[in-house]
Design a protein that fits this description.
The chain is built from eleven helices and no strands. It is mostly helical. The protein has a domain of 146 residues. The protein is elongated and about 90 Å long. The N and C termini lie close together (6 Å).
Length: 307
């Protein structure tokens, strides 16, 4: 994910990292070549001349802009909901850490308390790997006790297994009388909210936008951009390649951005920086325990955050 300070207007024009322009260059070059063919045909250099009226392109462009706007809104809603879920994960992790440190009516072994908070700080890492379908072995092995690590790795839904262990910790201390029934209810409410967060992330990851809708927009954009030069060449002549590429960039970039943020848990430049967010949540709970921060992913130039 790219996070930048407010750039000068000229630097914004030249921004490269985080834009979708690099992946669009081959497609824009194709539109440029088609525009050259349209200009050559218009000047009768070629034997075949194709001339189209610009009126249909005006009507089609308006309709296409509406559809692309709807597609972008749907994709951004998914991205923003995912961000809110991870914000809720931070809030719940802090709340449960505070409850662990303040609600027990009898002192709990500090090692036991530290283990609970350590597992709570590991939960975001397990969730990140599940959403991205990556191997969590290295991250989990460095943070979990060996028996729990083996139990978690043997399960299919590792964040849910960690939550089960957290619930068992609360139950175990409730049986010894260290945690009273009202405190148990407070813990259970936060565990339920954590479960809602995990379920919400799983829902976004497993339910993409309908493919038929996406492919219809994709085909329409490329047909419009490929045929546009033949509709412009009569009115603007040799400037057709310039305006055709600019219009194509506008429509193709909107589609590419929507496609990129539709899956907010990926590793594209504009996806959520889950690695950094996981480290931040873990650091937040360690801070309440008065423990030093672990090494965190560093920002690159111009505020680039590691995913």
């Amino acid at each position: 994910m790219i996070i930048r300070p407010n750039l000068h207007w000229f630097r914004m024009l030249l921004a490269w990292r985080g834009s979708v322009l690099p992946r669009l260059l081959p497609r824009l070059f194709l539109i440029f070549c088609i525009s050259i063919i349209a200009v050559a045909g218009h000047d009768h250099i070629l034997k075949i001349t194709v001339k189209l009226s610009p009126t249909p392109f005006s009507l089609m462009g308006i309709a296409l802009a509406v559809f692309l706007g709807f597609r972008n809104n749907a994709s951004y809603d998914r991205w923003w909901e995912a961000r809110k879920l991870w914000g809720q994960l931070l809030n719940d992790a802090r709340s449960m850490t505070r409850q662990t440190l303040t609600l027990p009516r009898e002192p709990i072994d500090p090692v036991d308390v530290r283990e609970f908070i350590q597992v709570l700080g590991t939960l975001p890492h397990a969730l990140r790997h599940q959403l991205r379908q990556t191997n969590p072995t290295e991250d989990l092995a460095a943070r979990l006790p060996a028996p729990l690590f083996e139990r978690v790795m043997a399960s299919r839904y590792r964040p849910a297994t960690l939550m089960l262990w957290l619930g068992e910790w609360v139950q175990r201390n409730a049986r010894t009388g260290a945690i009273d029934p009202m405190a148990v209810l407070a813990f259970d409410r936060n565990l339920t909210t954590l479960s809602d967060v995990i379920g919400g992330c799983e829902r976004i990851a497993s339910t993409p936008l309908p493919f038929a809708y996406s492919v219809m927009i994709h085909r329409t954009v490329y047909f419009f951009c490929a045929s546009l030069p033949f509709g412009l060449v009569d009115s603007i002549g040799i400037f057709t390649p310039l305006f055709s590429v600019f219009v194509a960039y506008t429509f193709m970039a909107h589609e590419a951005i929507a496609s990129q943020i539709e899956e907010p848990f990926g590793t594209d430049d504009n996806d959520l920086a889950l690695t950094t967010m996981s480290a931040f949540i873990e650091d937040a709970v360690r801070d309440l325990l008065a423990e030093p921060s672990l090494p965190r992913p560093q920002s690159g130039q111009e505020g680039v955050l590691l995913n």
